[in-house]
Automatic annotation (TrEMBL):
Enzyme class at the top of the EC tree: hydrolase
Transmembrane segments: none
Protein name per the record: N-acetylmuramoyl-L-alanine amidase
Residues covered by the MurNAc-LAA domain: 248-402
Source species of the chain: Sinorhizobium kostiense
Length: 413
């Protein structure tokens, strides 16, 4: 299950006094994109929503005046509100979906930007949007009035908006770092989810998948980089949103020899536990793999991104031939990882599975998606939060990578 980022905070006068301290503290944290001399993030410290299936009003209070822009996305209908970088100090219940909206998410979109995504039950328009100063002069509130509209009107809104579906912070325009050692074996480690896309939520700890994956990926990168001739890097180094195509793009820009995407999902069947290694395929190996791929492929939709079709070159026959060879290498890597895990850590039944994961679609980079375990299972959840377990599993993956690499070299790969 994928949910929004929630940070509990106090309300009323006490919260407004706390807002200044919170914003100051946020400014002192390691940079998440704003410059060292730039302003701290906005603080959204309270919110409320009211309405019915015809009209709904949403009000969010900030410590400073927010700039904002409103956009629309279809299939499904979503209202997107883009904001500057914002720390959301909101109680979860303050923005529980109601009225026109059946799901509300908010969170970071990367350096300098945040986003509110309002999933609507049908065609919806923001008919009035206004930023107003609070009566006591200590903050500002953003007021959004939404109304149900007809399909033709909504299509007109989509046609007339100039928005392209992205924000400045989501562009993968980071500088490309060359390999430190000529001929190094480059591995891209991709912590799943991030920013507004929190991923799954732990059953007992309520920890978010995006944090679990980042914590593990950092250990994995350190472990891999200690191997002779190997250089590993993170696709994201902090809590930021990256679209699925961007993750692939970053790996290709760095000339990665391998791409490992790290996840820790949840299942309705809480007794299922253990690691799984996935590779890409047009046809899923089983129902569980198909469901997981469908959920993971929703990452961009959760962040309010319009669906991006495949780039034209993917359809090219030469790319298709490269993809087939890459898929074979991906399967070899998956088998090596499973072999390394056997007898050492818990594995799911049939631990090598496959489905149509969009994040594994690099035509020229062997790629696997590693499901470390399930946050819906209490035993898996404890292990996922255990630093010693992370070190052990990272070591096993490093051994698997070295065996894969040696076999590829021996076969002329």
């Amino acid at each position: 299950m994928l949910r929004a980022v929630f940070v509990t905070g106090r309300f009323g006068r006490a919260m407004r006094s706390f807002a200044v301290l919170f914003a100051t503290f946020a400014f002192m944290l390691p940079s998440t994109g704003h410059g060292a001399d730039g302003p701290p993030p906005l603080l959204a410290f309270s919110a409320r929503i009211a309405g019915d299936d015809a009209r709904t009003r949403l009000v969010i209070s900030f410590d400073r005046k927010p700039d904002y822009s409103v956009h629309y996305v279809s299939n499904p209908v979503r209202v997107i509100v883009d904001l500057p970088e914002t720390s959301f100090g909101l109680k979860p219940e303050s923005l529980e979906p109601r009225g026109l909206f059946n799901e509300i998410r908010y969170g970071g979109m990367g350096a300098g930007a945040s986003r509110l995504v309002l999933s609507a039950r049908g065609p919806t328009e923001i008919t009035h949007a206004e930023v107003m100063p609070d009566e006591d002069g200590k903050g500002f509130r953003l007021v959004l009035d939404a109304e149900r509209i007809g399909g033709a009107r909504f299509e007109k809104l989509l046609r007339e908006q100039t928005w392209t579906g992205t924000v400045r912070a989501t562009k993968a325009d980071r500088p490309v770092a060359p390999a430190k050692t000529p001929g190094a074996f480059i591995i891209a480690v991709d912590p799943g989810h991030g920013g507004i896309d929190t991923g799954a939520i732990g059953t007992a700890s309520k920890i978010e998948e995006k944090q679990v994956t980042l914590d593990f990926a950092r250990v994995l990168v350190e472990t891999l980089s200690r191997e002779a001739g190997v250089e590993a890097f993170l696709t994201r180094e902090r809590d930021e949103f990256l679209s699925l195509p961007q993750r692939v793009q970053i790996a290709r820009q760095r000339n990665a020899n391998l791409f490992i995407s790290v996840h820790a999902d949840t299942l309705k069947q809480k007794d299922i536990r253990g690691a799984t290694v996935y590779t890409i395929s047009d046809k899923a190996s089983d129902h569980l793999a198909a469901e997981l791929a469908a959920r993971e492929n929703l990452s961009d939709e959760i962040a309010g991104m319009p669906f991006e079709s495949e780039p034209p070159e993917v359809a090219d026959i030469l790319i298709d031939l490269t993809r087939r060879e890459t898929q074979a290498f991906s399967i070899n890597l998956a088998r090596s990882v499973v072999s390394s895990f056997e007898g050492q850590i818990q594995l799911i039944n049939n631990p090598h599975r496959y489905a149509g994961f969009r994040v594994l679609q690099a035509p020229d980079v062997p790629s696997v998606l590693l499901e470390l375990g399930f946050l819906s299972n209490t035993e898996d959840e404890k292990l996922l939060l255990d630093p010693e377990w992370r070190k052990k599993v990272s070591g096993l993956i490093a051994s698997a990578v070295q065996r894969y690499r040696q076999a590829a070299v021996a076969n002329g790969g």
